[in-house]
């Protein structure tokens, strides 16, 4: 049976490919993007199964308006995909105040407000599914992506809590964690002004690797999107889904190290309880 999806950030990358795949299999899609006209070719090909809406997710009022319009037009939306986002590249000291505000407003606050806007409609229709596109960067951290990681760790915490809150309403959540994937993510990076003092630090090493193209990208965008669709279609999806060998390896290593450190601290942790 066909489904109806709402997907943000559909002009390029995983969002665009996900929209194309779903339309090809006969589903209906409400696709949001910042610039109108980008999906005109798809609109001509798929007719009323695609509804394109202009949306900047940093505009909370617009999010609520678009969500209302989408549910009114489609009647029911089965899956809401929070995908819009980008990367801010620079050491924590290097990025500007304006860059920080925009990164958080887009990746974190925008995703939070999108989910919040969807919940009343999902409750009213008796359930649905929220798919949050995060990153391996929601559980690990590379130098020079500190603000990006802050938003991804933040949205994962939000979704994990909300999932417990809305489960009684028949709403479930899925967090997608791709590793470096063959999209235009690198081309869309917002670069901070580099400081010379970071040249010979891990931040400088990552900067040079990205600039030279030596930053390994192993993830296949088409396979990643196919895996997202399979998981989102599942009767009981995994709560988190790491995609790509880099994501699996890096997340596994990070979790193992955190667990090792936690076990080492067990005696100190237990000793901090009230006596008796």
Automatic annotation (TrEMBL):
Stored Pfam families: adh_short
SUPFAM superfamilies hit by this protein: NAD(P)-binding Rossmann-fold domains
E.C. number(s) listed in UniProt: 1.1.1.-
Keywords for the protein's UniProt record, in alphabetical order: Oxidoreductase
Enzyme class at the top of the EC tree: oxidoreductase
Segments crossing the lipid bilayer: none
The keyword Oxidoreductase is assigned to this record: yes
Gene Ontology MF term list: oxidoreductase activity
Protein family: Belongs to the short-chain dehydrogenases/reductases (SDR) family.
PANTHER family xref list: SHORT CHAIN DEHYDROGENASE, SHORT-CHAIN DEHYDROGENASE_REDUCTASE FAMILY PROTEIN
Protein name: Probable oxidoreductase (Short-chain dehydrogenase family)
